[in-house]
Amino acid sequence: MISFACAYLCSQWKLVMTLVIIIGLSIALPITSARVIARYRAELESRSVSPPLLVGARGDRFDLVLRSQFFVGELQQSLTYKEYDRLSNSNELVCAPLHLVHSAGQGRWPIVGTSSVYLNAQALSLKEGQPFVEVGTCVIGAEVAKQLNGMSAIKSDLQSTFGFGDASPYELKVVGVLKESFTPDDQAVFVSLETAWLLDGYGHLHQDGDAGTAVNRNSFLYDVEGSHVPQNSQTEITESNRQQIHFHGEQENYRISSVAVWPVTNEAGVLLRVNYQDNRTTQVVVPGEEFEKLMKHVVRVGDILDLVFVILLMISTMMVALSTAQSVQLRKKHLETMYYLGCEASKVRQLLFIELSMVAGLALVACTLIVLLLDSTAPSLLSIL
Amino acid sequence: MISVRNLQFQYPNSPFELSVPRFELEAGQHTAIVGPSGCGKTTFLNLLAGIIPWTEDAASEFQFCSVPLAVSSSREMRRFRNESVGFVFQDFRLLEYLSIKDNILLPVTLSSNARGIDWDARVEKLITKVGLEMLRDRPVSKLSRGEQQRVAVCRALLREPALVLADEPTANLDGVNARGVWDLLFEQSDEIGSTIIAVTHGSDGLEHFKQRVSFEEINFGGKPSLE
Fold first, then answer.
1. Distance from A24 to chain B by nearest Cα, in Å?
2. Is residue B143 part of a domain?
3. How many domains is chain B built from?
4. Would you call A101 helix, strand, or coil by DSSP?
5. Is the peptide bond before B21 cis (omega within 30 degrees of 0)?
6. B93–A339 CB contact, under 8 Å
7. Which residue, A265, A258, A260, is CA-closest to A92?
8. Which of A137, A316, A339, B185 has the highest CB neighbour count under 10 A?
């Protein structure tokens, strides 16, 4: 009987495929949407826990959180190192500076200037190698390591479109690889603040006798005392030339993007927020709260999607009903023949049930495949979100 | 073997009336019922097969091998049709998406009273006799009309039925194919001892029948009408 059912479905393969795809999509789309939103929420929530507080220049709060937590692009406003210095003097706060300006691999990997405190606080441990102690060295995330495929150095990206600017790209020596953490840290290149400032152009290397040229008037380095741009900048830092790296200006005025803060006690966190409440240039942001606001929007989008899916489901149900009615009409003569031949009514019903079950089974398989396919592309969907 | 008494039948909202006071056949007889188109021959065959249910009438009687069938339930009539009747239809009534073999096996596949017999061997024997053994797995939609009707005859004979009903089985076939179908039907029926009742509106195949009856002789209902 199964072969009879198969033969009929094969003879009607276009109708069957249409039904299978319609039913499969109708079920798979709401499931996938719910799963993607759940994964998005889980990812945001897990990331928003640590660090619990962020200090940054006053401006868009969510922008500060997104860029400091997910290392997406450059913050429009920056802090000075002085701010970090002040915060880190407190025994009640564990602080890590974040310098989020540069990238490598044509924008694929953000270069995060920070201290070893960040790695410890985020429980990022080294899979191999050593920390980024020296200027010009870096520790890379697990995903970056996979993509680098054993290369021992990474070149930072050019700062301006045409390659002209106050800072040159440097070759950063990979001295360590982090264990996989399934967070944006896997995609990042971690360097010391000194290295980040070197990439900024506060510091540089140049040959003897190269007095350099003046800094562009529009550059943030213009106000830095004694700063200049080497005419023949050396971009490869070696053991021999590392000692020649020098910085201009006062370190306390060097820029950083934000400060990640882990208060030792709840009171310390509350106190920090109160202290900065009326500050006109600097703000304290709780990432968890910002993500919660974002999730409200995402859930609203999810609700709209659910409504769309309900409408889609209604349309597809009508299409399935129409196709089934058409199919029954087509089968009328077949069923009549079965009656004429004295086939048992229960057996005929059984045959029809097998046919319907097969279509339902195929739809279920299609649904599973669609869900798996969309699931595998979910990370890229999340990055779009 | 077959005994029909006082059969009265009328389609709803139709002037057509079938009235058969008496119709009897002995086992193994081959009878041709001849009559013009639309006189009710097919309706009569459908009533004999139980495809059209008998009107509840106390005077009606239908006995097959001394078993009264006129008052049988729809389920019993299906079973009777499946196990004791082989029907060859004018339009073949094959399921075009099934293979030759599956079409022949259809009545036993969709029946729970078909255990204990090697149906595959029977099918093999039948299709070898009709020369379709090389095409057994081919869908019937890809066969010629003559081949299709041979498949329909094989299906009707699979159960080795006591009664074979043929409704103008060669009406859509050319002379050569028609002769082939009649030869097959008679040869096989004789082998298993089936009774044949065939209806036809022309002289086509009449030479095979010893007993020929005009439908007017059976039907006293009068006015012929479109079936």
1. 26
2. yes
3. 1
4. strand
5. no
6. no
7. A265
8. B185
**Helix %, strand %, coil % for chain B, to 5?**
35, 20, 40
Domain that holds residue B124: 2-219
Q: Write the DSSP string, A51-88.
A: SSEEEEESS-HHHHHHHHHH--S--SS-EEHHHHHHHH
ipTM of the prediction: 0.86
Residue B159, in any domain of the structure:
yes
| Alpha-carbon dihedral angle through residues A40, A42, A43, A47, given to the nearest 10 degrees | 140
B227 lies in some domain: no
- Residue in chain B closest to A347 (alpha carbons) equals B110
CA distance A2 to chain B (A): 10
In Å, the largest CA–CA distance within chain A is 107
Q: Which residue has the tokens 């389609």?
A: B11
| DSSP tag of A179 | P
Tokens at A194, concatenated = 């000194």
| CATH classification of the domain holding B174 | 3.40.50.300
Tens-level pLDDT at each residue, chain B (227 residues) = 788 888 878 888 877 788 888 888 888 888 888 888 777 888 888 888 888 887 666 667 787 777 777 667 788 888 888 888 999 988 888 999 999 999 999 998 888 777 778 889 988 988 888 888 888 888 888 988 888 888 998 899 888 888 899 988 887 777 777 787 788 888 888 888 888 898 887 676 777 788 888 877 777 654 433 33
**Least CA distance to B82: which residue of chain A?**
A342
List, in order, residues 6 or more apart from A13 with CB less than 8 Å away. none
Asked whether the beta carbons of residue A351 and residue B110 sit closer than 8 angstroms, the reply is yes
Domain-wise residue ranges, chain A: 2-45+294-384, 53-291
How many angstroms separate the CA atoms of B73 and B56, rounded?
11
Assigned domain for B77 exists: yes
